[in-house]
Amino acid sequence: MMKKIRKEWAENEAPFYRWLLAAILGIALGYCNGFLLGFLTRLAVGALTASGNMPYLAAEQDLLVTMASFVGVFIGLWVGLRLLCRTSLRAFLFGRDRKVNVKVTLITGALYLAGLGVSMLFVLPKLRLDPHPAGLVLLNLVFCLLLVWIQTTTEEILFRGFFLRAICKNEIPPMRKGLLIAVGTGLLFMAGHLANPEVTTMSGIGIVITASTYFFSGFFMFLADLLAGGLEAGVIMHWVNNFFCFVFLRNVVTALETPTILVDGSDDKLGLVSLFSVLIAFLGPIVYLTIRRIKQQPARVLTQEERLPVHEEEAGS
Prior knowledge:
317 residues, 74% helix
């Protein structure tokens, strides 16, 4: 019985107002859950590290609390989708009756990672080793492998998922409408990150440039989701980006300080460097997904009127 109900839910297309209510309910429940789970995690880490037996956990406290908060938001969004849109999380993320192309998803993530690697050339002279014990870096790697996907998936649901499912129905809209929606998701994503220290510590035009990196990230991730037909493209690129920043390379000023391998000690030109890095990182995935989408378009079949002159010409010869 439950399997049949879940199948019906996954195949149901909810009206727009239900998607909107699901988003509001999910955010409300999510932030309540997130605050509670984050608070409990902070207490637990504090109790475990008070004795001095687990010193590494103290350095990971911010990461664990942040990820616990995102677990709460993730649960809230899942409840909102279930109650109001009657859709499964898989159907919401990837589309109804659609199989995720794992190969395409991995290629998209690999191209994005390659773009991040190329963008490191901008800050190569400023890179230095992060002075943390190898054991702490390894522990951070494990935590990020286990937890970062929850954060990135939650943000993709919030900032792009509802647009893709409620407005676009997982289909590419007309060019003007698609660009307007992409701009809207970019602005929303930027607004959600304006309080980050890498933005607030800048001054003058630096604030605009650094904030614009989040706008273009949201803009291009939505375009990638449209081209892929689901949220997997945005999820994999978002995960690669955050995993890269949390484990491999971070700036001296960042929203979430984790024990990374390298630290970027760039000066106040970081805003412009970050903007170039975003554009370079997204270039490969967007080109790849666009070419793939064009190749998938069915060849146009000639109409009878278009074929008729050819037949007449053949008959005359």
